[in-house]
Specification:
The protein is α+β, with helices and mostly antiparallel strands. Helices cover 54% and strands 17% of the residues. The chain contains 26 helices and 23 strands. The strands form 2 sheets. A 6-stranded mixed beta barrel has the order 2-3-9-6-8-7. β7 and β8 form a beta hairpin. α1 crosses α10. The two termini are 29 Å apart.
C-alpha cells in the first residue's frame, strides 16, 4: 500500500507526468508507425499487384500442362487465364467491310484477380469500375475503335470466324502496364470464344499468361515447384519483373518508413531516459529518508521498480490506443489518394512491437537511473551535498545505446541500416559535443560585454557548460534527425516526380517506313504535339565479343544476360549524343565519322565485362559487321523515351533495311487524334503507354503521401525529446530564479535571459544539426538508398533558424512557471 500511495503522490505532484507521457508517446509513435507502415505498405503493394491483375504471373508461348494448374489449385491459389495476340477485326462480313489491326486479349471468367476493369456504355463517356469480365459471346472494345470502324454499342464485330456482340467499351485494364506494350487498340473477349474464331493455330504468335493470387506462403511454395518444371521460354513474374521502376520506388519507400521508425524509437528512448533521470534525481532525498527509517536497498528497489512497471503497463495500454488512433487518422486522410479498403486488417504484430518497445525502453533507459537510487546514503537527510552513487555514466549510456540498437534492428530487420544510423548518431554526438563545449566556453568573454539579459543568459550557459553541451547535443540530434528525414523525403519525392514529369511521352510509334518520316513529322507538328527525335532501327544479333562467342562470354560473366541477348537487338545511329545519355567512358565520335565504331549502354557493358577498345561482331541479316567500342553511355530506361543498347555513327548502317520509331506526348483530351492518325498511317503501329503512366503516377502519389505523414509522426517524437530535455534542468532553474528575484531581479529579466539562453542553444544546435544532417544524408543516399547526392543550401539557413525558434519557444513555454513560482516557496525546499 505504501508503494501505491507513493505512486499516487508522485502522480498528483506532477513528477510522473513527464515519464508517463514519454512512455505513452514512445509506444504511441512506435505502434502508430508500425500499424501505419504495415497496413499502408501492404495496401500499396497489394494495389500495385494490379499491374499484373494478380500476385504472380506465369508467362508461356504455349498452353502449359494441366498438372501445373492442378498443383496451384492444391495450394489454394486463385487462377485466371489470358491469351493475347494481334489480329485484324472486321465490322461486317462484306468484302469491303471496315477492318482494323487490334490487340486481342481473351480472358477467363475470373479475370482480374487483382484490381478492376474500367468500362463504359459509350465511347469516351463516363466510366465505372468492375471486377467482371466479358461474358461468352460478347466483346468489349477500346473507345477509339467505335468511331474508327463506324460501330456502336450493340453492333457485331467479327474476330476471325466468330461474330461477337459489342456490349461495352473498355477504358482501362489493371494489367495494361504489366503486359508491356499494347500494340493497337484493345479488343477484350472471353477465352471460351477463341475456338470459334479459328485464329489460333499451331505455330500462331500468341502469348499465354496464367494469373495466380493467394497467400504469400502458398505463392512461394508454388513458385518454387513450378520453377522446377519450367523451360527457358517460361517466365515466373512478379511486380519487380514487370515494373522494376515501381518496385524500386516501393523498396525505397519501405526503407524510408523503416528508417523513420528506427529514428522514432531512438528519439523516444532519449525522452524516456531524460525523464527517468530527472525523476530519480528528485527522489534521492526520499530514498535517504526511507533508509534512515529502516528500509533496505532491496525494499526500496521493489517499491520503485514495481511502481515503474505499473506505470509502464498503464502507459502501454494508453499508448497502444493512441497508436491505433494515429494510424486510423492517417488512413482516413489517405483515402483521397487510394482505395484504403484494399489495406489488410489490423494484426497483433504492431501492438507486440509497441509492448516490446516499452519494455526495452524501460530496461535500457528508465531502469539504470532508478537503480542508482539504491546507492543513496541515509546521510543525505543531514547532508544534501553528498554525491549520488550508482551506475557510471559510461555504463548507463552503453545500456541505452544497446537498447536503441536492439530496437532499431528488431523494428527494421536491417542490420546495415541499424549500424549506419548508430554510427552516424555516435559520430554526430562526438563531433557536436566537442564543438558545443568549445563554443560555450567562448560565451564568457561575450557575456561580459553584453546587456543585462544577455549577460545573465550567457553567464548561465557558461556556468552550466557541460550540462548545456550535453543539452546542445540532444537538441542537435533531434533537429538533425528531423532535417535528415526531411532531406531524404524531399529527395525521394523529387526523384519520383523527375522520373515521370508532366509531358512524359506516352505513345510510341514503330514500324515507320522511310518514305513516311517526313509526312509523320509534319502531322505531329501540325497538331502541336511534343515529340522525341525520329530514330532509325536496324535489327541485328550480337554474336561475338573479341574472339569469344556471346553465349560463352555471358555464361562466364553474367548467365542472366544470355536470355536477354538470345534475340535480335534494335540497332540505331545518331549524329549527336541523345540529350538524356551521358558518356561515362571513351568519347563520342566526331562529326562525319565513317569508322566502324559503336557506343554501348553501360549496364549491358558491365554485365558482359566489355570496355572501350573491345571488338564486337553483329549478324545483320546474312552479313557480318565488326565494330570497335569507342564509348559507353549511361541512360535511364524509365524516361519513356526511345533508348538503344547500341548506337552507331550515321552512314555505317545505311546499306541495311531500316524502319523508324519515335515517341510523343498526347494529352488525354486529344485521344481522338489517334483515329485520324491511323487513317493516314494504317501500317504504323501505335504503342499506347498513357494508362501505364497513369498507374505509375498513382502509386507515386500514394507513396509520397505516406512518406510525408510518417515524417509528421517523427516530428512529434522530436518535440517530445526537446521538451523532456528542457524539463531536465527545471529544478536548478527554480533555485536560480528564486535567488535572482530575492536579490531584486525583475521577472522580465529572468524570463528574457531564459529565452535568450534556449534560443542561443537552439541556434547552436541547429547549425551543428545542419552539418550533421548534410553529412548523414550523403551517406544514406549514396550507400543505402542508391541515389545521387545533391547539396542542400537551404538546410544551413533553416536548421539554425528552426532550432532557435523551436527550442526558444519550448524553453519559454516550459520555463514560464519557473519565474511565476514565488521565490519563498522555492527557498523553503532548499
Amino acid at each position: 500500500m505504501f508503494a501505491l500511495r507513493l505512486l499516487w503522490r508522485d502522480w498528483r505532484g506532477g513528477e510522473l507526468g513527464i515519464l508517463a507521457s514519454s512512455i505513452v508517446l514512445a509506444v504511441a509513435i512506435v505502434t502508430g508507425i508500425s500499424l501505419f507502415a504495415d497496413r499502408l505498405q501492404q495496401g500499396i503493394v497489394a494495389q500495385s499487384s494490379s499491374f499484373l491483375a494478380a500476385d504472380r504471373v506465369l508467362q508461356s508461348p504455349a498452353p502449359v500442362d494441366n498438372l501445373w494448374l492442378q498443383q496451384a489449385e492444391r495450394e489454394g491459389l486463385q487462377q485466371a487465364e489470358i491469351l493475347s495476340f494481334q489480329s485484324m477485326v472486321y465490322a461486317g462480313e462484306e468484302v469491303d467491310a471496315t477492318m482494323q489491326l487490334t490487340s486481342v486479349k481473351a480472358v477467363s471468367n475470373h479475370y482480374p484477380l487483382r484490381g478492376q476493369l474500367e468500362v463504359s456504355d459509350e465511347a469516351f463517356g463516363s466510366s465505372i469500375k468492375t471486377t467482371a469480365s466479358p461474358p461468352r459471346g460478347e466483346v468489349w472494345l477500346d473507345p477509339r475503335l467505335l468511331p474508327l470502324m463506324n460501330l456502336e454499342i450493340g453492333d457485331a464485330l467479327y474476330v476471325g470466324e466468330a461474330k461477337l456482340l459489342i456490349s461495352k467499351v473498355v477504358v482501362n485494364e489493371p494489367d495494361r502496364g504489366g503486359n508491356g506494350f499494347v500494340l493497337g487498340a484493345r479488343v477484350l473477349m472471353n477465352i471460351a470464344d477463341i475456338p470459334a474464331t479459328d485464329i489460333v493455330q499451331p505455330g500462331s504468335l500468341v502469348e499465354y499468361r496464367y494469373l495466380f493470387a493467394g497467400e504469400a506462403d502458398a505463392l512461394s511454395r508454388y513458385g518454387e515447384w513450378v520453377k522446377g518444371q519450367m523451360q527457358p521460354s517460361h517466365k515466373w513474374l512478379n511486380l519487380k519483373d514487370t515494373q522494376p521502376g515501381i518496385s524500386q520506388s516501393l523498396q525505397r519507400a519501405e526503407q524510408f518508413l523503416l528508417l523513420a521508425g528506427a529514428l522514432g524509437v531512438g528519439l523516444a528512448g532519449i525522452a524516456i531516459a531524460l525523464a527517468a533521470r530527472r525523476y530519480s534525481e528528485r527522489h534521492y532525498d526520499y530514498v535517504a529518508i526511507m533508509k534512515s527509517l529502516g528500509a533496505t536497498s532491496a525494499r526500496v528497489m521493489r517499491i520503485y521498480i514495481g511502481n515503474l512497471l505499473l506505470l509502464a503497463t498503464i502507459a502501454l495500454l494508453v499508448g497502444c490506443a493512441f497508436g491505433w488512433l494515429i494510424q486510423e487518422m492517417f488512413i482516413l486522410i489517405l483515402q483521397d489518394y487510394f482505395d484504403v479498403t484494399s489495406t489488410p486488417e489490423i494484426t497483433l504484430r504492431p501492438f507486440i512491437i509497441g509492448s516490446v518497445t516499452a519494455l526495452v525502453c524501460l530496461l535500457a533507459f528508465a531502469l539504470p537511473p532508478l537503480l542508482s537510487l539504491q546507492g543513496a546514503s541515509p546521510l543525505r537527510v543531514l547532508r544534501r551535498d553528498l554525491p549520488n552513487s550508482g551506475l557510471g555514466n559510461v555504463l548507463t549510456y552503453g545500456i541505452g545505446v544497446s537498447g536503441i540498437g536492439l530496437l532499431m534492428f528488431w523494428y527494421s530487420g536491417n542490420l546495415t541500416l541499424t549500424m549506419a544510423v548508430l554510427a552516424g548518431v555516435g559520430l554526430t554526438f562526438v563531433i557536436v559535443g566537442v564543438f558545443a563545449w568549445y563554443l560555450l566556453r567562448g560565451t564568457a568573454r561575450v557575456g561580459m560585454q553584453a546587456g543585462s539579459s544577455w549577460r545573465l543568459a550567457l553567464a548561465s550557459m557558461r556556468r552550466r557548460g557541460f550540462q548545456n553541451a550535453v543539452q546542445s547535443v540532444i537538441f542537435s540530434l533531434a533537429i538533425m534527425l528531423l532535417l535528415l528525414l526531411a532531406l531524404i523525403r524531399s529527395s525521394l519525392i523529387e526523384e519520383w516526380q523527375v522520373q515521370l514529369p508532366e509531358g512524359t511521352p506516352n505513345h510510341f510509334l514503330v514500324n515507320v517506313a522511310k518514305h513516311e518520316v517526313t509526312s509523320l513529322r509534319t502531322l505531329l507538328a501540325t497538331n502541336q504535339l511534343e515529340t522525341e527525335p525520329i530514330y532509325p532501327m536496324v535489327r541485328g544479333r550480337l554474336t561475338r565479343v573479341n574472339d569469344e562467342t556471346v553465349a560463352k562470354r555471358a555464361s562466364r560473366t553474367d548467365p542472366t544476360a544470355q536470355n536477354s541477348l538470345d534475340r535480335e537487338l534494335s540497332l540505331s545511329w545518331s549524329k549527336t549524343l541523345p540529350n538524356d545519355n551521358i558518356i561515362v567512358e571513351g568519347e563520342w565520335w566526331s562529326e562525319g565519322s565513317t569508322a566502324a565504331e559503336v557506343s554501348m549502354e553501360k549496364n549491358l557493358a558491365q554485365r558482359l565485362q566489355i570496355n572501350t577498345g573491345d571488338k564486337m561482331e553483329f549478324l545483320i541479316g546474312s552479313e557480318r559487321l565488326v565494330v570497335t567500342v569507342t564509348s559507353i553511355r549511361e541512360l535511364d530506361w524509365d524516361t519513356m523515351k526511345p533508348n538503344f543498347y547500341m548506337l552507331f555513327p550515321p552512314g555505317l548502317l545505311n546499306q541495311y533495311p531500316a524502319t523508324y520509331m519515335t515517341s510523343f506526348y498526347l494529352p488525354s483530351g486529344q485521344k481522338h487524334f489517334l483515329n485520324q492518325f491511323l487513317r493516314e498511317f494504317p501500317t504504323i503501329t501505335v504503342i499506347e503507354m498513357d494508362s501505364v503512366i497513369k498507374q505509375i503516377r498513382s502509386i507515386i502519389t500514394q507513396v509520397s503521401s505516406a512518406v510525408e505523414l510518417v515524417l509528421g509522426l517523427i516530428i512529434v517524437s522530436g518535440l517530445l525529446v526537446l521538451i523532456a530535455s528542457v524539463q531536465a534542468s527545471l529544478d536548478s532553474r527554480y533555485q536560480e530564479s528564486a535567488v535572482l528575484r530575492t536579490l531584486g531581479a525583475k521577472r522580465e529579466l529572468v524570463l528574457g535571459s531564459l529565452v535568450i539562453e534556449f534560443s542561443s542553444l537552439g541556434l547552436l544546435a541547429g547549425f551543428l544539426a545542419a552539418f550533421s544532417a548534410e553529412l548523414s544524408v550523403y551517406g544514406l543516399q549514396e550507400y543505402l538508398l542508391r541515389m545521387d547526392y545533391v547539396f542542400h543550401p537551404w538546410v544551413w539557413l533553416v536548421g539554425p533558424l528552426f532550432g532557435a525558434i523551436l527550442i526558444g519557444t519550448a524553453g519559454y513555454v516550459t520555463c514560464r512557471k519557473v519565474v511565476n513560482t514565488p521565490p519563498v516557496e522555492v527557498l523553503r525546499e532548499i
